[in-house]
Amino acid sequence: MKSLLNQKFTGSIQVPGDKSITHRALMMASLAEGTSVIHSPLESEDTFRTSEIMGQLGVDIKREEGRITVTSPGSSNFTTPEEVLYTGNSGTTTRLLMGLIAGIGMDATIEGDSSIAKRPMDRVRTPLGKMGADISLVDGKYPPILMKRSTLKAIEYEMPVASAQVKSAILFAALYADGETTIHEKIKSRNHTEIMLEQFGVDIEVDGLSIRLKGGQSLEPRDVQVPGDISSAAFLMVLAAITEGSDITIENVSLNETRAGIIDVFQQMNADIEIEETSSEGEAIGNIRIRHSKDLTSFELSGEIIPRLIDEIPVLAVLGAFGSEPSVIKDALELRYKETDRLRAVIDELEKFGIEFEEFEDGFKVYPLKELKMTSDSFKGYHDHRIIMMLLVMAVASNTEINIDDTSAINISYPGFLEDLEKLKQAR
Ligand SMILES: O=C(O)C1=C[C@@H](OP(=O)(O)O)[C@@H](O)[C@H](O)C1
Ligand SMILES: C=C(OP(=O)(O)O)C(=O)O
């Protein structure tokens, strides 16, 4: 990382494909009998897990530069897997797969890495169980997940937590259930599943916070264009906003309202940001330009915006430290149930730069960093991609060389992150 110090970051770039959309495209293309092509998918460890598992079910997945061709025998002709379905570090793969396997109605065991073993899966088992799925969890909560073949009936379900993973699992199961399933959300979570199901020919009705889907519908093969991932773009956006002389344009990135809460934060902070929407059909797409600003103020985030930027909160802590006033995040208890307890990790690691925090059970207050005061140069990444990239942004922006125990988890969502920083750098 030494080569990235004392630089400014300028130019145009496309970030890798959206992780949430790539997972869904792989799964829906697998459910549809015939051939679908996914253009500009995310090729990373997490999405690789999803495609490997679809392969275990009997789907042919051909990977080429910039696209994946999926040829499926249709979900009624899937092979019952003999081996465990290994989801690695991917919560999205694990939870969406529970809905998909429950729907198809087959015996399977789903297991992930040591982080997945600690993430709650009862939030998916509860609604699927009401539909009739037979799912066993360790201590009623954790993987390995044992699924037994069963038939499903439709439910009406009120979501207790805002979670697109739970919602999507229910929708996958609902495709195969007898009757019409209705889901009510209290706060809207990302809606990629709803948008893509419609693209694959499914009749799905979205009415504000309620979603209705009739069972017995099949998907038709389609070509999917995956936009850039705004959660990956977030690291470049924050770096540009806080590093003198920087001016970055991120092209063809997802601007989906349910994902793009970070844009509101930049606007609240008085950052120098310009948005150009280039397409609003299905998934909104466009370009984001961010320039360095000396006049960043502060943000206060709670309630409905939180699911719209949930994965960006670690790097937003860095942005907050470069504001003129303290910034606050509340209602983000969910961060404690991600790859690691992200609230703990953010505070413990950023405090080593001298950034001060007040911790809440569901968030934090971050104070402006007046003076860099390193208390250590040894950092922990917790095998969490978002924490590692947050630390790299902070280190680069503050011209500080740090040692992170292991940075390999970057490959989970943004394999070319350091290469992209190299491409954008320019000596100051
Ligand atoms: O559905 C998805 O693709 C995701 C939903 C979010 O999780 P929750 O559903 O647990 O909020 C998010 O944190 C995760 O990175 C991806
Ligand atoms: C939480 C994340 O992903 P997942 O839940 O799929 O592991 C993430 O990408 O930040």
Automatic annotation (TrEMBL):
SUPFAM superfamilies cross-referenced by the UniProt entry: EPT/RTPC-like
Catalytic activity: 3-phosphoshikimate + phosphoenolpyruvate = 5-O-(1-carboxyvinyl)-3-phosphoshikimate + phosphate
One Pfam family from the record: EPSP_synthase
Compartments, record wording: Cytoplasm
All copies of domain Enolpyruvate transferase, residue ranges: 7-421
Annotated catalytic residues: 311
Binding site for phosphoenolpyruvate: 19, 91, 119, 165, 342, 386
Molecular function via GO: 3-phosphoshikimate 1-carboxyvinyltransferase activity
Enzyme Commission identifier(s): 2.5.1.19
Functional pathway: Metabolic intermediate biosynthesis; chorismate biosynthesis; chorismate from D-erythrose 4-phosphate and phosphoenolpyruvate: step 6/7
Family membership: Belongs to the EPSP synthase family.
Name of the protein this chain belongs to: 3-phosphoshikimate 1-carboxyvinyltransferase
Organism: Salinicoccus halitifaciens
